[in-house]
Amino acid sequence: MGEQMQQIVLKQYCEGPPQLDDFELVSRDVPIPNEGQFRVRHVWNSVDPGTRSRLSGGDSYAAALPLGKPIDGFSVGMVDASEHDKFPIGTKVFCAGGWRTHTIQNGKGFIGVVPDSVPLPLSLWIGVLGVPGLTAWFGLKSVARFQAGDRVLVTSAAGPVGATAGQLAKAGGAEQVVGIAGSDTKCQWLVEEAGFDQAINYKSVPDLDAAISEAMPDGVDLLFDNVGNAMVNRVLPKMRLNGRICISGQVADYNLTPEETPGIVNTKPFITHRVLMQGLVVFDFAREFPTALNEMATLIGKGELKLKEERFEGLEKMPEAFCGLFRGENFGRRVVQVGPET
After folding, report:
1. Are 253 and 234 in contact (CB under 8 A)?
2. pLDDT digits (tens, 9 = 90+) for 86-121
């Protein structure tokens, strides 16, 4: 038996919130790269709420994951075997590696070299400098068409996407940025560290509608939503003229069947206030990734873009880290170390 790698596969389709029994840890021989390929030894893997949409057996914006296949995710690591001229051994890369310790890549798709000139923690390249940060960047700037002076409301604001979006809005000259989160600790961090003007704990306020109206009496120019239909329906009557809504995620709806998913009925503002609503798949903007990453890395280096990470140790902890996302346990980006950094 040769050197072994580990991976987490889908054991059974998820019904409702994902459970530990839905996943299985398996081992296999470490793959050998062919000509034009290279092998990445993962150091950090991510768990992403959007992965849930592929785990019920039905197609979403991506095809359903077959049983027995490794779970999708993003990874950052080092090339430890190579038959590819542009990715020699020792190169640090971020990629769509999945929940495993090693992966074979060919240099195509979502992959990039971690620049040695940017002395930041390696895990950030699957966090603020990965898909979450890029989603915030393009969701805010390209999809929601953010403008200086906007009044911005961000839901799931203490998560990596929401926190980044709110901070980018403040850095861009927003008139007001308000976040909605699920604990007093998260709300305190958003205001005191991330620079939000206000934060609302949706779990403790007696009337969330009234709390939003009180925090934003002049209305909302831009809703950056990571929660789902019920939240959008709640905020629509509060949108200002020519308001924009970015549908970034639907964490409250991922575990629901189509029949259980709330509808959006407050549609009149689409006409009366000329409101626009649009979603995004961040890979549509892949050609522009380098510019966004460079600018966000600069902001981090200056201390102008704050972040939170929750770190787990060992590939076997990935299902636990993932399932906790849907219980609201996470505070910041969840990453799992699956190999040494050296």
Report:
1. no
2. 999 999 999 999 999 999 999 999 999 998 877 889
Bridge-based pairing state of the strands 198-201 and 220-225: unpaired
Share of the chain above pLDDT 70, in %: 98
Q: How far apart are CA 101 and CA 135, in angstroms?
A: 25
Residue type, 150: D
How many beta carbons lie within 10 A of that of residue 323, not counting itself?
19
Report pLDDT digits (tens) over 285-332: 999 999 999 899 999 988 899 999 999 999 999 999 999 999 988 898
Q: What angle separates helix 131-138 from helix 289-301, to the nearest 10 degrees?
A: 100
Cα–Cα distance list, 112 to 106, 284, 288 (Å): 11, 16, 13
Q: What is the dihedral of CA 111, 113, 118, 120, to 10 degrees?
A: 60
- Domains identified in the chain and CATH numbers: 4-127+308-337 (3.90.180.10), 131-282 (3.40.50.720)
Closest to 250 measured CA to CA, from 265, 261, 236: 261
CA 198, CA 178: separation in Å to the nearest integer? 5
User: What DSSP element (H or E) covers 46?
Assistant: strand 38-46
User: For residue 77, what are the β-bridge partners?
Assistant: 42, 93
Give residue-wise pLDDT tens across range 15-63. 999 999 999 999 999 999 999 999 999 999 999 998 998 999 776 666 8
What are the residues whose beta carbons fall under 8 Å from the beta carbon of 131, sequence distance 6 or more? 46, 48, 74, 282
pLDDT of residue 162: 97
Q: How far apart are the C-alpha atoms of 297 and 294, rounded to whole Å?
A: 5
Quick check: 336 and 100 in contact, CB under 8 A? no
Report the C-alpha gap between 231 and 171 in whole angstroms: 25
**183: DSSP letter:** S
Give SS3 for 207. coil
Instruction: State how far the Cα of 56 lies from the Cα of 66, in Å rounded to an integer.
Output: 10
| Token code pair at residue 257 | 């069947």
